[in-house]
Amino acid sequence: MRKASLVLAGALLGATAMGVVQQHGLLGTAVAASADTYRYLNLFGDVFERVRSEYVEAPEEQKLIDAAINGMLQSLDPHSAYMDASKYEDRQVDIRGEFGGLGIEVMMENKLVKVVGPIDGTPASRADIRAGDFIVKIDGEDVEGMSLQDAVKKMRGPVNTPITLTIKRDSAEPIDIKIVRDIVKVRVVRHRVEGDNVGYVRIASFSEPTFDNMRSAIEEIKSKVPADKLKGYVVDLRNNPGGLLDQSVQVSDAFLERGEVVSLRGRKADDVQRFSARSGDLTDGKPVIVLTNGGSASASEIVAGALQDHRRATVLGTRSFGKGSVQTLTRMGNQGALSLTTARYYTPCGRSIQAKGIEPDILLLPNVPEELKDKVDSKGEAGLEGHLTNEGGEERSASSTYVPQEAAEDVQLQQALALLRGEKTDANFPPNKDSIPADCGIKSQSAKVPADNAGGAKN
């Protein structure tokens, strides 16, 4: 049985749903329900049969069952849900970080699909698809009237299968371009050297390639900037909706020498899992500033919380989303999968960020354009109907999700760069390791952990 762990942020962030999820095979034997429960299940069967046979229009039976299952799960919390086979496959694409497709970034403009740009080395790039092209037909079918999601789904497909795009370029007549689909890897980590002395690493989500991509990014930055000149790193987790738990552990581990990264606690008192770091800091102890905002959720909050508790990094920006729950993803035969909330997670100092979020060490609001001020705030987990409550009773809404496209206009990024370069100062940077609470236990934790419960090897 293959197991993987994720951290579910949800489509509520305007991104594909993700979360702390453990994948299992088919359901095993469950604890027997009470006699009353079985009577209610019989009642459900009677109601279903009455609807199926007597409703004024013949209903789709599968849709009735799916709606009933989802109604049950949605009564629990916003992150428990049933996925049909199609949605489950979409989730697997998010987990793997790759898919069969063309390799183009697109957006909707004037009811047509506009190419933002082809990804280097992909079928779209080789076929000379260009930024600014409009896709007017997909395999002869008009795009106008399609949603962006439907158009993207049509362009994805099995590797080595052909597709014809009808392209409108400038004022010329539309042209047909035949492309053969191939494996496209999602670019989840982007990096660059800011100025000539600060490494910038942007992590968009936590899928299977994330840690390897981040490690490569750090290695490339170190190869470009001599150690004596490198001032430190900015790790940008803004609007990162989450992803795989093991990736969040490994990313945290990359900056830590030892100690707990995160713990998961289920319904039973003894149902606890702890994940710890192995020795070795990929950044050689250089200063780190982590950027967060109201769109930073789940796995990104695990990373921010771990580095903040260990006083390894200063968190700058605004309060994070506040999703501190864990989902288990169970395949249900060939019918789909069940995503069920099964635990909460806690930072190394035992903090639950559920419906509360990570408070930044340095609070800095973005400069939001006037026309967007009512459109970029996230209410966070606390704003979701039916969310799990915070055990401490204190809940807070999230914050702005605005990030400007131009680095020069990004006051949060510019503040981080100025702090790392010593151009500005703040009492919370660098973080003071002596301020770790005495009851946190981080200082006394050993780096040695069981092999099946450790972060990824740092090599």
TrEMBL record:
CDD domains the UniProt entry points to: cpPDZ_CPP-like (cd06782), Peptidase_S41_CPP (cd07560)
UniProtKB keywords: Hydrolase, Protease, Serine protease, Signal
Molecular functions (GO terms): endopeptidase activity; serine-type peptidase activity
Location of the PDZ domain: 92-156
Keyword Plastid on entry: no
Spans traversing the lipid bilayer: none
Gene Ontology annotations of biological process type: proteolysis; signal transduction
Matches recorded under InterPro entries: ClpP/crotonase-like_dom_sf, CtpA/B_N, PDZ, PDZ_6, PDZ_sf, Peptidase_S41A, Tail-specific_protease
Gene Ontology CC annotations of this record: outer membrane-bounded periplasmic space
Signal peptide (UniProt feature, chain positions): 1-19
Region of interest called Disordered, as start-end residue ranges on this chain: 380-407, 422-459
A Pfam family annotated for this UniProt entry: CtpB_N-like
Family assignment from sequence similarity: Belongs to the peptidase S41A family.
PANTHER family: CARBOXY-TERMINAL PROCESSING PROTEASE CTPA, TAIL-SPECIFIC PROTEASE
Protein name: Peptidase S41
Naturally occurring in which organism (per UniProt): Agaricicola taiwanensis
